[in-house]
Amino acid sequence: MQKPLSEYNSIVVLTGAGVSAESGLKTFRDNNGLWEGHDVSEVATPEAFEINPALVHSFYNARRNQLLEEAKPNLAHKSLSRFEAEFNGGFTLITQNVDNLHEQAGSQNVIHMHGELLQVRCINTGIVFQWTEDLTTQTHCPCCKIAGSLRPNIVWFGEIPMHMHEIEEALSHCDLFVSIGTSGNVYPAAGFVQLANAMGATTLELNLEPSLTQSAFAFAHYGPATEIVPSYFSI
Ligand code: OAD
């Protein structure tokens, strides 16, 4: 039996593509998911960017445009931001998502461990810029002025996720860890439940269906994020 949410001191939430699915953004591995139409090695690795930057840019330009033109936060994003505002204890929201729907819904402290679609980074200086335009191999970087030196500020396969120190710190102090809308395919995020368990936290999975790491969670509720997240995160 779980305690009421108000009795926890420090809550860490991890979200994945499933939280944005009902906002119209495709997940990666579901039927008709993003990776089904693309070879990951051709659009989401540093090698892909070296070999065919135009293809990589067109993949992320499409994602960025869809986010800017179509996607709106749904009830799952909104209920998490409302909960953060009302909860008296510590609350850390870690997302694997590169969209900004948590921020659009009003969440204050969002840790984007896989980067952000609305940012680009100079490969020469490492400087990050907010970015809403299409990126091409001809785009000049605002800092080094060299054409083609900007890349999406996204963590590609083979690269190290961002903010890991901050994330491990939050996980090591939480007494509740909730994983929402993620398949458990990609590490290190898929291993956060084990870390939370080792620290003695209660662990809960909220997902459409059991994830690959389902057995590591003490509790689980299954259904669409827009139903199960608001129903769980109501104080
Ligand atoms: P996946 O596409 O692997 O998994 C999405 C999960 O969301 C699945 O378990 C679905 O069952 C669930 N889901 C789908 N629709 C849902 C809904 N309406 N409500 C609740 N759950 C739903 O996406 P992630 O686990 O987020 O990384 O993928 C992790 C990482 O793999 C991504 O961040 C991305 C990708 O490669 C990078 O690009 C670095």
Q: Could you name the ranges where pLDDT drops below 50 across 5 or more consecutive residues?
A: none
Biggest sheet, open or closed, and with what strands and sense? 6 strands, parallel
Task: Enumerate the strands of the largest sheet in spatial order, edge to edge or round the barrel.
Answer: 3-2-1-7-8-9
Mean pLDDT across the residues is: 95
Helix content: 25-40%
User: Count of helices?
Assistant: 8
Strand content: 15-25%
Overall 3D shape: elongated
Query: Based on helices, strands and strand pairing, what is the structural class?
Result: alpha/beta
Task: Give me the strand/helix succession.
Answer: EHHHHEHEEEEHEHEEH
| Rg, Cα atoms, Å | 18 Å
Q: N- to C-terminal separation?
A: 17 Å
Tally of strands? 9
The set of bound ligands, ions and cofactors reads: 2'-O-acetyl adenosine-5-diphosphoribose
Overview of this protein structure:
The structure is a single chain. α4 (75-86) packs parallel to α8. This protein has helices spanning 40-43, 46-51, 53-69, 75-86, 101-104, 164-173, 192-198, 225-232, and strands at residues 10-15, 90-95, 110-112, 115-122, 128-130, 150-154, 176-180, 202-207, 219-222. It has a 6-stranded parallel β-sheet with strand order 3-2-1-7-8-9, sandwiched between helices. It is elongated and about 55 Å long. It is α/β, with parallel strands linked by helices. The two termini are 17 Å apart. α5 links the parallel β2 and β3. The structure holds 2'-O-acetyl adenosine-5-diphosphoribose (OAD). 2'-O-acetyl adenosine-5-diphosphoribose is lined by residues 16-18, 21-22, 27-30, 33, 44, 96, 114, 155, 181-183, 185-186, 207-209, 211, 224-225.
